[in-house]
Amino acid sequence: VMYLLNFRNFLQNVILGAGPDGPYARAMRGEITVSQLVSELEEDCKKFAASLGASLPETFSVAQVFEDIMTQGKLNTALLQAAVTLRNNGFRTCVLTNNWIDDGPQRHITALAFSLLRRHFDLVIESCRVGLKKPDPRIYEYALNVLKAKPQEVIFLDDIGANLKPAQEMGIATIFVKDTNAALKELQDLCGIQLLGHEETLPIACDPVNVTHGYVPIKLGVQLHFVEMGDGPVVCLCHGFPESWFSWRYQIPALAEAGFRVLALDMKGYGDSTAPLGQSGSPSSSPPSGPLRGDKQQKDLVVFLDKLGISQAVFIGHDWGGAVVWNMSLFYPERVRAVAGLNVPYRPANPNVDVMEIIKAHPVLDHQLYFQEPGVAELELEKDLSRTFRIMIRSMRKEVGMFSPLSLSAGGLLAGMPEDPPPSQILAGADLQYFIQQFKKSGFRRPLNWYRNMRANWQWSLSAKDRKVRADPSAAVTRLLSLGLDLRAGAGARLAFSSPSPGLRADEERCQEQPAVPSFPGAERTVAW
After folding, report:
1. What is the pLDDT of residues 200-221, one digit of tens each?
2. What pLDDT was estimated at residue 202?
3. Is the pLDDT assigned to residue 166 strictly greater than 90?
4. Calpha distance 398→401 (Å, rounded)
5. What class does CATH assign to 2-71?
6. Full DSSP string of 291-348
7. Fold (CATH) for 211-355+442-506
């Protein structure tokens, strides 16, 4: 009886006693499912107890043990973060696990866990999918072949010593994981990458090739392209200028892992989203029929939601995308579950001053006047796309010859900046090349047309000047510092949120200190993620 009280030891003896052809081993090789495994183990446990001259208690349940294993399991976040750090430093990462085909009542947990692992690792090898299980040496040979790696190039971590022995014999460096910090210290020493006490690393980003792309036809000549990930309440991400859906590459997986269905759009006229040139290509006095006028943007988003069968969504926008999402909450509040604007807090339109006069009165916004004449800014920005993005999309860290506001005084937006700027710390390598590829498709004409409807948009938005943002929660996240703003002009001005937006929440700085300039999309010309 005392023997049976230690149920885990009892079950372990049943499993090991069955040998390589027992139900557990067959389940690990994918020959039977977990429900079949539970059923066979129940019978084996009864037989084993009888051989000891004992009987199982009425409450005995192998199924309950497996359910407890699933519900009580926890992710080792420290090891996961280390894997992310290694991957960011050029290492290929792989999960090599003994696992069963899960058709049990808790199979959704297995689905969530492996979905997470596949986003964070280059490769996930499950024993049940390849017909081999640890510590069979053949599964290590299989992994080496798939990774195209030699044993001497691999470090293998496991919390079962028996699984490490065959790998060691093959020449693989091994780490026995008993204590996470000790294992990470050993891994750090072997790979030469700081894993303990390091700064927070970048999260996993989307790979444009390995993410779902979708297209929604809005009307003749207009389609919206989007990237989708996750399952749950819908979050629509709307970018600004000069960006694309790819600007959200770090936020998309994080939101998906948090339980949301993420839709990151290419805004109209960007990347694979199309927009006719129409009259939006004319100067700021263009008639309100321009296809990039604000009301058309909101109507297009409503059509986008309708065609995807979505009644409500959380809208998050940056820069021009911020203006779009605030207006969604004003003109289509029934479609907005919650709203947040990054770098563009909501301010109602001022009926007493023409918006173009406001822009002319603030030199920090002179680029918006520069953008009004079709063809001029396009010529400069499209001349060398690599240089354009290396200048316009940078981090806020100080860099020699780079940390200065963009100015038109030298004869152009990028004039006076290095001809061959240093690589951007936030947009380099393959990420930069993807931006270049997208803007080779769209050019800058349509993205710049967003600035060429300023007066029409202002006149349209006056109809909502007395409305309030009712979405709750709503949030504005801003930054004090911007390469595109001259901070000497009236620093310390406060933003008043309570009147136009009763549900609005500011960021942790409470947005108390901001340059005393109008809050326009595009006033900040540097993206920082």
Report:
1. 677 789 999 999 999 999 988 8
2. 73
3. yes
4. 9
5. mainly alpha
6. TTSHHHHHHHHHHHHHHTT-S-EEEEEETHHHHHHHHHHHH-GGGEEEEEEES-----
7. Rossmann fold (3.40.50)
